[in-house]
């Protein structure tokens, strides 16, 4: 059941830029993939995903451990909003709910808003839960060895 702060099936009817703060936040499926470090090829611009997690990611919950105050620790963490989605699409995970809706696609069946269960993203095997390595454990010159295929 939806929380009273969320309009019924808002993701199907409300454009991203018209969503309330709570609706916007509820769109995040909790996959944790955007909190992985990425490697960008300077020549091709291609972006590779690694399983090396940002220092604030909690591998068990797959959520940021300091979300409200994260910029005190990770100033470069991007605050995604309708105005900057387009410029960030190139690195965003394929299944990211924001990317899907921006591209006019539907949320996946395992999305917690559809399933009603926050665990469904993990049960579907598309999240990073239990798969990450903390960034302080791997020197940056070795990150290439941790490149992974996005779980989808
Ligand atoms: S990739 Fe998208 S849906 Fe997944 S955790 Fe990041 S913002 Fe949320
Ligand atoms: S600061 Fe938090 S939200 Fe930002 S990348 Fe790190 S874990 Fe993710």
TrEMBL record:
It comes from the Bacteria. Belongs to the UPF0260 family. InterPro entries: Puta_zinc/iron-chelating_dom (IPR005358), UCP006173 (IPR008228). Coiled coil: none annotated. This is UPF0260 protein GR167_06620.
């Amino acid at each position: 059941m939806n929380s009273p702060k969320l309009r019924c099936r808002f993701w199907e009817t409300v454009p991203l830029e018209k969503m309330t703060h709570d609706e916007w936040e509820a769109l995040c499926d909790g996959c944790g993939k955007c909190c992985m470090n990425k490697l960008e090829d300077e020549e091709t611009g291609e972006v590779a995903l690694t399983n090396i997690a940002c220092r604030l990611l909690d591998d068990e919950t797959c959520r940021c451990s300091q979300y409200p105050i994260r910029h005190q620790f990770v100033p470069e963490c991007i605050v995604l909003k309708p105005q900057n989605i387009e410029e960030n699409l190139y690195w965003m995970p394929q299944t990211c709910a924001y990317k899907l809706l921006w591209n006019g696609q539907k949320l996946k069946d395992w999305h917690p808003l559809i399933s009603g269960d926050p665990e469904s993203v993990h049960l579907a095997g598309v999240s990073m839960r239990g798969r990450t390595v903390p960034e302080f454990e791997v020197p940056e010159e070795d990150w290439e060895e941790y490149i992974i295929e996005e779980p989808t």
